[in-house]
Amino acid sequence: MKVVTGVIGNDIHVVANRLMDLSLNARGYEVFNLGVNTYLEEFFDAVVETGAEILLISSLNGEAEGWGREVKLLKAKYKSLDNLTMMIGGNLTVGSGNAEDIVPRYKNYGFDLVCHQVDLNTGLDMLETYIQEHR
Amino acid sequence: MSQLQEEREIILGNENVDSFDFDEVREFVKGADENLFISHHFAKKGKMLVQPRGGFPTYEKQYALYEFFVDANVDVLPLTIDSNTRLNDYATAKKMLRLSEANEVDMLNGYPLVNHGYRTTRKMMTHFNHPVSLRHGTPDARLLIEIAIASGIFEIEGGPITYLLPYSKNFPLDKAFLYWKYVERVCADYSTLNKPINRESFGPLTATLVPPSITIVIQLLEMLLSLEEGVKSFSVSFAQQGSMIQDIVTGTVTRKLAEHYAAQIGCEDAVINLVYHQWMGAFPMNRDSADQLINMSTVIASMCGADKIITKTREEAVGIPTKEANAQTVANTQYTLNILSGLPAVVDEQEEEILTAEVHAIMEAVFNDPADTLWRKVFNSIKNGIIDVPFSPHIINHNKMITIRDPQKNIRIIERGNVPIPDHCYEYEKSCCDLNKDTTSIVNDIIHDIGIMQ
Amino acid sequence: MSTSSDKLLIDIGSTYFKVSTKESIEQHFRDFNKQILDDLMHKCSDTVQRFESDDIHICSSANGGLSTLIIGLTHSYSLKYATNIAYNAGINVIDSIIFQDIEDYSIPSDLIDVVIIVGGIDSNGGQFDERLDNYLEKLNYSNIVYVGNGPDAMGLASRIDKLLVLPNVIDNRLHIVEKHLKEYLTNLYQQDIEGKEDIKDLYKITGNQIYSTPYVVNKSLPEINATFSVTDPFILLDIGGATTDVHYSKDLVRDNIVTEQGHDRIVFKKLGVFKSRESLIFTAEQNEFAYELLMHLKVTESIYKENSERATKVIMQLAIFLVLCEMSHYRTANVTLKLLAMNSIVFTGGITKVLTVEDIEDVVAFFYRKILNSDHKPVTVLDANYDIWTIGAKEYASCQ
Fold first, then answer.
1. Domain residue limits at A31
2. Do residues C218 and C386 touch, judged by C-beta distance below 8 A?
3. Cβ atoms < 10 Å from Cβ of B411
4. B3 and C255: CB-CB below 8 Å?
5. Region C95-122: what's the mean pLDDT?
6. Are B318 and B357 in a shared domain?
7. Is residue B344 part of a domain?
8. Chain A: nearest CA to C67, how far in angstroms?
């Protein structure tokens, strides 16, 4: 399966991004890594160009709140993304916040899977389970 | 007027520069005290020079930091530049400087040298009369280094590769080569007036599992790009890697090959120095552990025979260190250096041979690129993955090389990508590691290997 | 290899033509009642006749360049890559279409010289369905080239008449592959120039190939320092009668593209000072600062209707301002350059014969103050002798 991944926004966490890339590869995905500092539109555009089934966005500096609201709006402009599995992981809020608040909020933004401060392998296990159930 | 001089006038005609007086600056460099030149201190070869890190937005805070450092018996003062200046955004730096001056809060993560200007900064540099090293991370440092040298800062860190690949996603690398060519030429020009200006490459790169072969190749290439423009004093550097023997071997091979390649282009007269960075990866939160790590770094630097060591602080994991913590590391490091004696000469011939063969092979592949200039050969080699820097965010970097640690914590290449690591070296590197695990556990190993000091 | 010292270089523009020898450079307004060759010989026959046909080199932008329409999948990849390649090959992009919305786009009535279809990496076929065929049926074009994903190529080639298939411009890492499309477009432009009746005539006086002007200018950019005191990053503005060409150092943009050349090009099709004067004035009327600029220049909007030397001058100043606006954050539709980092601004073309450095600096300073709130002042360089074109022409002359 093809996955588009990368770190959103003004964020230069290369190590996390590269580890995501390696882990996805290790699990047999075909990875298109857009790297750090990627804009939302670039993610969706890359999904269209590659035909990826999964979009996995990382956000580590907690600024995801800023653009979260735009996700649905932007995604609605694309006609071929209805079957896209959308996942977000990382540190999804500034300061402290608990998963019970954060997860529903991001699901509301349009993400199927939300991993707030979940370790890499647990997150990717969740993805695998989700894919098995939904595809 | 020479083309370089014309370019300099345009660069220095920037609206943020308060009338640059070329003649006055030349006179200043010509007459500057030899103590301001790190090249002079290297030549004395007394001891390993100790240099901390640090930069504050305001003149007063920088001055206070230097006072602490001098009290702690510092050898080389740092001047770390703020990130707006690194991106050539002098307008924002100016705004933030004003805010920092008005409210006691630091709105910049370094000293905005261009905004302070050389007339002001020079007062501080000549007052302390220590060599100062410019630490920045700027792809286009043309204006910055002009102001630095005019201020009495006679060591310039960085280079087109080492200041770009670890920091930027999309600044065009070919432009960075041309902008750094300007830096080399200006440094070379000033070097004829007094003691030489020292250029230093930034060996730590991404500070994340970069194998020594890649580090050394990039050090050598930046050295050659600098020497071919006429620079006479150059420091190659690397950061603590995690295994003492790998550091010692890296130091030996770096020195040997730096001389070899400098001689190949007829630059035997240039002085090449070796600089060691204390651990640049993730630091322990516990301040006492951090102190132990720093101390061990100092011992390894001595084993490597480094000419200069660049220090970290016990507050590394917490945030920007205070001047107290910073000065304490300087004093501690000086103390350790003072009491260290009777170090054994450690040699590992096999490791040296493997590393030397790897570096030669990559260098040869770079030289074999059909481009007509060295910088373009290097540019092409990065573009086609002959040089591949693990964990670089830059879009030009291939990211195909994979490295992990062996049981002795040596960094080993287990996937070479397009890098022409010779087969026997590659087999050796892989044979040091347990590769029978499934790939997911190898990824877990990498995560572990990055955080070994935490 | 001969040197250019014994060569005659001729550049045919839509408004002027220029004739350059080692001693002098002359330029003349074109007389549109005459064929180019007749016009040239009428005005410069003495000069032309002094040279052997093998020593005469000609370039042309007289036809305003080739036009292209690009159909792609996304803005960030397929359209961006194809647009970048087209501009750098000297082609003018008329429109770019996102394929998923192709039914919503109106069909341009003008003849399109070349249609480019692009999109998808090679493992992502099945992108272009019959909506493409429907659109193309209504479109009037001369050439069509496919540079998208591999799997779709065969099907499209069987459905679309005369479709040329070239390797994908997007590789499997989502990086740009310039080579094939760029070569094709450069050659197409070349053939077009040679195919024009007017231009064909010129082969009566030259034994050398006639090149497109943007190609020649692009060749000269890496050599520009040899003649001018120009410091990277810079932009070069060629404000012409019909269009305005801008060549810019690529570190002025933050694009995730790794390309070969150090400079990129864009074209503003409707910003010119003669043929496109009406559309330029229209653009000015939509710009909230243009009125202030007119006041600053001490004229009123009535200047638009005047036909005087003064009016030409103001129109040219307005053109500079509007082009800078198009490239700043003020107008987000186009490429946004980091104009505060720009060290030099170079002007070539007819404008250098009309405006002084002061006239230009005045309007550039106005732009920086009003739009960017800055006192930044890039160094203005006027290429009044068409040296940029000459350097490029020499470059290719010396290669032949």
1. 2-134
2. no
3. 24
4. no
5. 95
6. no
7. no
8. 25
Among residues B339, B372, B395, the one where a domain terminates is: B339
Q: How confident is the model at residue C63 (pLDDT cuts 50, 70, 90)?
A: low
pLDDT at position C62, please?
66
**Do B140 and B179 touch, CB atoms closer than 8 A?**
yes
A9-39 confidence digits (pLDDT tens): 776 778 889 999 999 998 999 999 999 989 9
- Residues of B involved in catalysis: 86, 157
What is the side-by-side order of every strand in the sheet holding C92-98? C92-98, C67-72, C112-117, C141-146, C163-165
Q: Name the residue with tokens 């501009």.
A: C87
Residue-wise pLDDT tens digits, B280-338: 999 999 999 999 999 999 999 999 999 999 999 999 998 888 999 999 999 999 999 99
Residues 6+ apart with CB under 8 A from C86: C68, C70, C93, C116, C181, C185
Nearest to C237 by CA among C152, C317, C301: C317
Catalytic residue among A13, A21, A45, A82: A13
Integer Cα distance of C381 and C353 in angstroms = 13
Asked whether residue B180 is assigned to any structural domain, the reply reads yes
Which of B171, B443, B447 should be substituted to probe chain A, the one whose Cβ sees the most A Cβ atoms within 10 Å? B443
Q: Do B208 and A15 touch (CB under 8 A)?
A: yes
**What percentage of chain A exceeds 70 in pLDDT?**
96
Residues B14 and B148 in one domain: yes
Smallest CA–CA separation between A33 and chain C, in Å?
8
Q: Is residue A43 exposed (0-12), middle (13-18) or buried (19+ Cβ within 10 Å)?
A: buried
- Domains detected in chain C: 4-63+196-215+389-399 (3.30.420), 67-188 (3.40.50.2300), 229-382 (3.30.420)
Q: Which domain CATH number covers A25? A: 3.40.50.280
Across the range C91-102, mean pLDDT stands at: 93
Q: B394 and B264 in one domain?
A: no
Chains that touch C (3 or more CB pairs under 8 A): A, B
For residue range C249-298, list pLDDT tens digits in order.
Answer: 999 998 888 887 888 988 888 888 877 889 999 999 999 999 999 999 99
3-state secondary structure of A96: coil
Inter-residue contact C391 to C349 (CB < 8 Å): no
User: What is the domain count for chain B?
Assistant: 2
Please tell me whether residues B219 and B318 are part of one structural domain.
Answer: yes
Q: What is the pLDDT of residue C262?
A: 84
Structure tokens at B11: 């660069």
Nearest neighbour of B393 by CB, restricted to A12, A26, A27: A12
Confidence of residue C11 (pLDDT cuts 50, 70, 90): confident
> Which residues of chain B does A25 touch, with a Cβ-Cβ cutoff of 8 Å?
439
Domain range enclosing B173: 3-339
- CA-based nearest residue in chain C for residue A1: C123
Quick one: CA dihedral C258, C259, C262, C266, positive or negative?
A: negative
Helix (H, G, I), strand (E, B) or coil at B79: strand
Pair type for strands A30-33 and A2-7:
parallel
Chain A contacts to C (CB-CB under 8 A): 2, 30, 32, 34, 39, 41-42, 44-46, 48-51, 78-80
- Evaluate if residue C400 carries a pLDDT over 70: no
Number of domains in chain A: 1
Task: Choose between C204 and B129: higher pLDDT.
Answer: B129
Instruction: From B339, B361, B380, give the residue that closes a domain.
Output: B339
Inform me whether the pLDDT recorded for C195 exceeds 90: no
Residues B117 and B193 in one domain: yes
Q: Is there a single domain that holds both residue B315 and residue B377? A: no
Same domain, B205 and B60: yes
Instruction: Evaluate if residue B449 carries a pLDDT over 90.
Output: yes
Within 10 Å of residue B67's Cβ, how many Cβ atoms? 14
The interface predicted TM-score (ipTM) is 0.95
Considering the domain architecture, whether residues B335 and B389 belong to the same structural domain is answered as no
